[in-house]
Amino acid sequence: MTGFVTDIEDTTLANDNFRQVVFTGFHSQLVLMCLQPGEDIGMEVHSSVDQFFRFEFGEGKVVLEGVEYVVKDGMAVVVPAGTNHNVINTSDTNKLKFYTIYSPANHRDGVVHQTKAIALADTSDEIDDFKT
Fold it and tell me: What is the pTM of this model?
């Protein structure tokens, strides 16, 4: 492993996949995400994974243990392990583009899920997610 260097804003804005793992290290993982208008990731909890979100385009909300927070370009959210959470694109017309850092990794290295439906059908991918 030699590291990973990119213009994260440009890389995130260019991504149209629901989920694209771009780097997996020993203790963390960088994943690009794009939610279609009205789409969400689904309520979930990672029992042993902390997660960081950075929003680059669009508007939405993040739900942490039932509390809703409005998010938009430039905002960040940290989700500690064990926290029920969801990310929701609240727009009827625009995509919500963001990246997330898992610590430790939560997905297979290099995985690309073009849509949420494909991601949900891939039962071999998620390491410790619980989706409700």
Answer: 0.85
CA 47 to chain centre: 16
In the chain, the amino acid numbered 2 is T
Q: What is the pLDDT of residues 90-118, one digit of tens each?
A: 999 999 999 999 997 777 676 777 777 87
Q: How distant, in Å, are the alpha carbons of 46, 95, 104 from that of 81?
A: 6, 27, 10
Residue 67: both structure tokens together = 């509390």
Alpha-carbon span 66 to 110, nearest angstrom: 32
Which pair of tokens denotes residue 76?
């960040």
Tell me which residue of 53, 56, 55 sits closest to 44, measured CA to CA. Answer: 53
Q: Which residue has the tokens 């939560």?
A: 106
Distance in angstroms (rounded) separating the CA atoms of residues 89 and 81:
22
